[in-house]
Amino acid sequence: MHGGKIQGLNLQSYLFFGSANRLYQHVKAVLARHHECRYLIFDFKLVTGIDSSAAFSFAQIKRAAQDRGITLVLVHLPAAAEKALRSSEFISPEVLVIPELDHALEWCENELITQHKGRAQEDANLRDWFTQILGNADDANELIRRCERIEVEAGQTVVSAGEAANSMHFILDGRVGVMVAADNGGTTRVRSLGRYTTIGEMGLVSQTPRSATIQAEVASVLYALSTQQFEAIKREHPALGQKLLTYFVSVMAERLTFANRMIAVLRR
Question: Which of 255, 254, 258, 230 is nearest to 244 (CA)?
């Protein structure tokens, strides 16, 4: 269904530890074959009951799905089965219970359509930004091809101070905080950076350890350019590599100006 983004599983008979474990193994095999899967629909129409010992396998299924960013959808769930799954905390806000299969499929399809529209707009925004930085669409497309898209949640650490600087990040959406070590042994935020800004370009150019910890303040979308890809650009597309270096220097100059202003304020 939808190129494998929606996968349906029909369950039947009485579910106990053995059958639930077989289900878990089957789910793992499905996910291994369909890396693009985003929704797993479990149809309980033919299930006659669930033993409490099956809860462990369902918990494993839930963890495997969450690790891959997959939403679980349960349909035709009998009251007794729902009670058993809720008592084991398998059913939680991130697991959907929808009465009918047709409605579940419609919901998943609408979510995919919405996400597709969102990604199309995101791609356009990224291409426009990179075109503005680099001067033409061809260079922008080449840079996009070299970057890895990363989603981070609020509070998640993007990079840590002292780590090897093996990448830099373009912030397409969201906001991150720049954290440095404080005298009390903790950290303090010295600056926030939002959309259409970059982090880590100095480490990428100088190949020195990271000087600060970067933490997402809200859910954010970043595009990472690794050291290996940056070196490949300089080797294979020297004109593009020079444009990136020029951009990084301008960013670092702006950051130095900001730091000097902060020092001047603190000395007053």
Answer: 230
